[in-house]
Amino acid sequence: MSAQAKTRRKTVKDIAKAKSGDPLVCLTAYDAQMAQILDPHCDILLVGDSLGMVVHGLPSTVGVTMEMMILHGQAVMRGAAQAFVVVDMPFGSYETNSDQAFLNAARIMQETGCQAVKIESGAYAATQIAHMVERGIPVMGHVGLRPQAINVDGGFRAKGRTEDEWARVIAEAVAADEAGAFAIVIEGVAPDLADQITASVFCPTIGIGASAGCDGQILVTNDLLGMTDWVPKFVKKNADLKSVIGSAAETYAAEVKSRAFPGEAQTYKLTKTARS
Ligand code: KIV
Fold first, then answer.
1. Residue 254 located in a structural domain
2. What residues are labeled active site?
3. Domain of 104, in residue numbers
4. Domain total of the chain
5. Coil vs helix vs strand at 208
């Protein structure tokens, strides 16, 4: 049995404890190597559709496909041993009706082995959430700034700027909670609004650009690691990997050009023997 198979993986019950316990530590992961590095530190690893922008260079998450989510979900599942792995449902894969949502979510779970899916949950999505949960699929909601809706919103805009919008975000969170979501991501809202949602719902809330009072926090890992030039206000870069990688590549380029690489330490020392 492999070391990974022996490790107990977190379940929805462990995630639910965050409502009265320590905050949930959540990060995005898109490949096996990063999942393996992050796994010991995280309660939840999210295979976010942000991978469309971060990994594939797309302008938004709108162009992300089921195939992309499944491929990256499979990779993350190979690297993560104990974290609860959630895979985002891409734009267009769940909005039509409950049957479409269930069939695509079931495919994601069967083909990746992940523990749950996430959908960006406007009020309409409560029907889909209830349908999936009743049929065995744990669903994470996502309210506030919903990146899949940027074409309606006219860009990535923080939410809750008017009384109507404030009330709508709360209603969307409560609808997802009542439909059975096991957790809800709150993105891009004022701390007061996030705190009000956290107090209004039964399930744990996970903030990104929201409030330290949420039941957990999530960030896009590449932002946390300083791989991206521009990051939103709510990101705290804990490393500067862009410079580290750039300078490693610069040193490599110089050593290749000067023939200092490969050196003695990087070359095989084989002695020729007579032909057998
Ligand atoms: O796609 C994603 O990475 C997300 C998180 C930022 C919450 O939805």
1. no
2. 187
3. 3-247
4. 1
5. strand
